[in-house]
Amino acid sequence: MQETLPRRATTTSAVRLDGVRKHFRRADRTLAAAVDGVSLEVAPAEILVLLGPSGCGKTTLLRSIAGLERPDAGLVEIGGRTVFDAARGLDVPPERRGLSMMFQSYALWPHLSVFDNVAYPLLSRRGGRPPKSEVAAQVGQALELVGIPELARQHPGELSGGQQQRVALARALVAGDGLILFDEPLSNVDAKVRERLRVELLAMQRRLGFAAVYVTHDQTEAMELATRIAVMRDGRVEQLGPPREIYDRPATRYVANFVGIANEIPGEVASMRDGRAVLRTPHGPLTGDAGPLTGAIGPLTGAIGPLTGAIGPLTGVAGPGLEEGAAAVAVWRPEHGRMSADQPDEPNRWRARRRVSMFAGPHVEHHLDAGGLACRLWSGSGGAGEEQEVWLSVPPGRLLILPA
Length: 404
Ligand SMILES: Nc1ncnc2c1ncn2[C@@H]1O[C@H](COP(=O)(O)OP(=O)(O)OP(=O)(O)O)[C@@H](O)[C@H]1O
Ligand SMILES: [Mg+2]
Hints:
Rossmann fold, CATH 2.40.50.140, 8 helices, binds adenosine-5'-triphosphate, binds magnesium ion
């Protein structure tokens, strides 16, 4: 997939990583690559979300930016200044990197007032503390910005979870220099509060214009907050792009399945043309659009599943790395499938059995069985009653063909 970061020479990136690697030696003496060669840039006022399953290296990468972890290789720049360069042995300590970090726990001092918590980074700054009046002014301004000036004299134990989060954010704003690193800051508040805090965090970020690197393993949170998402897998960035691109045009099956729900139909690439691919499956050929074609998969030979005459040719969008004759998978989202009693006038259609339908609030979720393949489909209404035979169709522009 295309990288869509605007590359203007005049704009200094908030963060730039080049070839960052970090290995850990496990107790059994084997080396584990927690971060395995990551290069990316974060634009000013951008929220870059690092998304991926547990253990994929999100925290290690974030800590490498912060200076809390020392990478084995690579370069880290913050606001155009090199703060880490393995080749030159350069390693600027965390407190002099011009950033702040907000953790899952908020890490507020329980014995200090809100005011003193927010003032803490200023008072513990190297090279002398600023005059009292300046501290008061900066703390007052930060509390004003996060909307809790009246709570300055409270202690963290006397605040709600949401208010504590604002205190932590105010402290991060006071300490930071336009870059804030977040490591799952909302993961220990309940779902309703989390939703509200996300909105407030985003509104605050828009107003204040800081850049952020935000770690989460929650795909909804990632899509809602991110300017761009970096989907990580085993210490590497598998795909980097705006949320809509990641959702609508996942470059790999891994991304398609990690972000959103993906229905899959396996097969072999029969042909490719003009960004579209035709997938030969036991259900008939499927066609789709092709993204940029890179890499190569050796052609597969051998038997092709029987083509059932009743099913018309099926068509879709070809993802990167496809080759004619190679094993591939057609992927589609539940909201893009259509179900009808009569045979639709669509290129991609096949017979299926609707097994159950469940009312899910905004949509109805249908579970279908298409010749042994289970798939899910969402529609606005309908689907009550007994099992029935239906036609299932997916528009070619909504069917992605990706390497298996
Ligand atoms: N100090 C350490 N010593 C040894 N191995 C480590 C250490 N820190 C992390 N690892 C390993 O590095 C890999 C990446 O860990 P990391 O904490 O970065 O993952 P993560 O993506 O943040 O996961 P989670 O979502 O669970 O927080 C894991 O395999 C982990 O076991
Ligand atoms: Mg982590």
